[in-house]
């Protein structure tokens, strides 16, 4: 990194000196401050929106993209709750205490490893977007999936800066009948039973709009709408499933090629890249008998229906903002928390009877074969640091602050730690050095606003990732990726972002440099030590393979 981060002896070495001091953006009058809406999809692949190459009808997100900016090189952390930890705090997830997963009431695994970076819940050495924006006069609302720890009351949404909350404190749940301990919470109270008919995607949006409509003053607001769609279990409304059933009988191989061609035509990917190959362990569509093809078409139809319903709800929210005359002065950002999800098995998890059963949870899924197509053109999935695990669609719509960039597709790289400084800049909020008597880690991200006003910005010199021992570092167009303890792979992302041609043996000096740089970052950002589980993720991987 450009600045040397020196571990302070202060507070057992948890904080850095020599880093950029906390920043204060230019002061803005309350009337000039934009509203901020942050929308996150869950386990949605890179190519699953129409504006990123999909055949799925997503007209509302496509319209936001056509009137905003699409990022083709924006990144997450490859997993649900680490992404949320980084997104909400502007820090790397290990700094916020969620280097792996969160502790939940029904987890089979205890994710508190007894060390700073792996406590299984968000810590107090960070501030959330809601806490920072509240200090700048914003009303703060959240609807949807929290997934930053639910066991400690002091760390729940209302206690971490949100005025109102409706959603799931834990991770996945039934879309149709969520029950405790993975049920709905309203503000600080659990909801014992939801009123039927019920669908989480609709309920989250309806409550978000209610929060906005109940606001009586003209102060700006921050809304975080965190859908669980299209995360498993496969639960969708029948009318939406009927719309798509039978449309995927061409199979995953043909779908991948179809999406790749559209991405090239739309300017999402360059024609020079080679489409990533289907993993060897994944069968071809043509090898499936008729009954299996019908089943797999149905699984994909339910998955697509989940995305379609999410897009319809985003349209509902945008319509509300437009009618309230607030859309033009709203900074709206949409992204996904990780790449498409292969959990549950190659051909999907759970039985056909489990699909759309409100009482059935777990990894009732569409399968790795479809997830591979969802991540077109990349290789890899959720969990790993190949592009298929960490690349996300990112749409920014901000009519009042987009000088000449409307409809632009940008290749400017960025990642989650850039959201906090973006919100600081537009809101005029001050990022604190301390909060509630605790020292706060300085943020290291860079605002995305210059991309909206100038078309570009100063890039990060290095970008870093780690999850479950899957690591990566990006330096310019070079990316080193691999598993801790194994040799690095090296790819030129300008010519080969689908990571087909490993250049490590050709560039040993560069690999050595990137290894040293990544190790320095890991040692100063609480990636190490890993604590009681150390480097063994076998238990979780075995659970994911057999989850039903």
Automatic annotation (TrEMBL):
Record protein name field: Arylsulfatase
Annotated Sulfatase N-terminal domain residues: 34-428
Family: Belongs to the sulfatase family.
SUPFAM superfamilies, alphabetized: Alkaline phosphatase-like
Lineage: Bacteria, Pseudomonadati, Bacteroidota, Cytophagia, Cytophagales
Top-level taxonomic group: Bacteria
Pfam families (UniProt xref): Sulfatase (PF00884)
Keywords of the record: Calcium, Hydrolase, Metal-binding
Gene Ontology MF terms: arylsulfatase activity; metal ion binding
Organism: Spirosoma telluris
């Amino acid at each position: 990194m450009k600045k040397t981060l020196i571990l302070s002896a202060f507070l057992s070495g948890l904080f850095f000196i020599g880093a950029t001091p906390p920043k204060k953006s230019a002061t803005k009058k309350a009337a000039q401050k934009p509203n901020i809406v942050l929308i996150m999809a869950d386990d949605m692949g890179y190519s699953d929106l129409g504006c990123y190459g999909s055949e799925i009808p997503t007209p509302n997100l496509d319209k936001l993209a056509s009137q905003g900016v699409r990022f083709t090189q924006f990144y997450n952390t490859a997993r649900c709750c680490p992404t949320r930890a980084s997104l909400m705090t502007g820090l790397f997830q290990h700094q916020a205490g969620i280097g792996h997963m969160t502790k939940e009431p029904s987890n089979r695994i205890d994710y508190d490893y007894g060390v700073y970076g792996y406590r299984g819940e968000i810590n107090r050495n960070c501030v959330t977007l809601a806490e920072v924006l509240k200090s700048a006069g914003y009303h703060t609302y959240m609807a949807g999936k929290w997934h930053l720890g639910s066991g400690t009351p002091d760390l729940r949404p209302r206690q971490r800066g949100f005025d109102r909350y409706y959603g799931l404190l834990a991770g996945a749940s039934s879309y149709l009948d969520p029950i405790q301990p993975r049920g709905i919470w309203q503000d600080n109270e659990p909801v014992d039973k939801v009123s039927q008919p019920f669908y989480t995607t609709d309920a989250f949006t309806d409550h978000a709009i209610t929060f906005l409509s109940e606001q009586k003053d003209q102060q700006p607001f921050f809304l975080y709408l965190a859908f669980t769609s299209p995360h498993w279990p496969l639960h969708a409304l029948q009318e939406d499933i009927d719309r798509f059933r039978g449309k995927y009988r061409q199979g995953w191989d043909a779908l991948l090629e179809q999406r790749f061609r559209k991405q090239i035509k739309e300017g999402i990917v360059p024609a020079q890249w080679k489409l990533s190959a289907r993993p060897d362990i994944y069968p071809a569509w043509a090898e499936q008998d008729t009954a299996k093809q019908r089943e797999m078409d149905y699984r994909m139809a339910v998955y697509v229906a989940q995305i379609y319903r999410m897009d319809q709800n985003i349209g509902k929210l945008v319509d509300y903002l437009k009618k309230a005359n607030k859309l033009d002065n709203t900074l709206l950002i949409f992204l996904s928390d990780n790449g498409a999800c292969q959990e549950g098995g190659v051909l999907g998890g759970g039985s056909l009877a489990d699909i759309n059963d409100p009482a059935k949870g777990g990894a009732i899924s569409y399968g790795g074969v479809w997830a591979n197509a969802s991540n077109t053109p990349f290789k890899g999935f959720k969990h790993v640091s190949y592009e298929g695990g960490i690349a996300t669609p990112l749409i920014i719509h901000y009519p009042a602050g987009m000088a000449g960039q409307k409809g632009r597709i940008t290749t400017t790289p960025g990642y989650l730690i850039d959201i906090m400084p973006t919100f600081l800049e537009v809101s005029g909020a001050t990022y604190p050095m301390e909060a509630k008597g605790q020292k706060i880690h300085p943020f290291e991200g860079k605002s995305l606003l210059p991309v909206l006003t100038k078309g570009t910005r100063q890039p990060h010199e290095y970008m870093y990732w780690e999850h479950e021992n899957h690591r990566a570092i990006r330096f310019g167009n070079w990316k080193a990726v691999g598993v801790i303890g194994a040799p690095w792979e090296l790819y030129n992302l300008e010519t080969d972002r689908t990571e087909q041609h490993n250049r490590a043996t050709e560039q040993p000096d560069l690999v050595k440099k990137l290894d040293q740089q990544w190790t320095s970052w890991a040692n100063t950002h609480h990636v190490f030590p890993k604590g009681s589980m150390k480097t063994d993720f076998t238990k979780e991987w075995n659970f994911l393979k057999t989850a039903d």
